[in-house]
Amino acid sequence: MAARIPAEERLTNLVVALMATEIGLTKQQILENVSGYRQRAGAGTRTDALEKMFERDKDELRALGIPVETIGDAADPNDLREARYRIPQAEYDLPEDIAFTPAELAVLQLAGSVWSAESVSGDAQSGVRKIRALGIDGDEPIIGFAPRITARDAAFAPLQEAIEKTRVVVFDYLKPGEDAARRRRVRPLALVDYEARWHVFGVDVDLGEDRTFLLSRIVGAVSITAEPFDPALRESAGERALSGLEAVAAAHSALLEVTPGTEAALRLGRRATPAVQGIRVPFVDLHILADELASYGPEVRVVEPDALRDAVVLRLTAVARVHADGEEERR
Question: Can you list the domains of the chain with their CATH numbers?
């Protein structure tokens, strides 16, 4: 049986392949040569299932801001029956007027020790060689993609597997303010990254309603059951999940005072709007935002809402207590 390639590595291999060509790859070439699709094709996965997987992957890359281009027939650009796909490297080139100080170059060199050509998987390099064997030239080197950087939530892999197999999952979920986790039976439809945290969107079987769960709040292992669900439920599930999260964020915001020039100002400023008193930051989960704000220490002060300010104070007080206890033990 062919080894299963994790979804995040399949996406990485796809990015590498699409950046390795100027003229683009057809869907058939991708399915036959890019690691992650090739193994499934060899194991007997139906072509239509592979094509749907590619369409989902392509949409996910675009949602991440990666410009996957679709190139139609030269005589008829609207004819996409033999469409080719590529990622133009020019989209990633730095403007000519950008320069770096010695200190900035040192940081980039340090990053380069992680994001290096050697970080590309053997399967990704093999995929590029196979593409070149088709007579399609690529540029060297292809760097900056590391399959080893994966989702750190233990629930991610089994949930991804359950989504692909269209199987109901069971897990224990602990909501903030509750003393014990509750058992959930869910039809998982999509995994989405929002505000740098992974969520699973699906249908709560017992409630019969759509729900979004934060992976970091799943307690223990995720069990994949033998109970199937209709694959059609997955259609546009990612878009629905993101739309729901954005709607929640739009309905909740925090008014913050942030010290200029600090890490808090840099990170929060990316998603904030100016306000008369500081900045206003939308949020989905009060407790997650409280964790983040507490990590900035004195760089940020919560003006409103009161519940968020209380949550941040509670966290900072706990940190101060632990620090004081440690000092007492060392005396």
Answer: 7-88+97-133 (no CATH), 156-234 (2.30.30), 252-330 (no CATH)
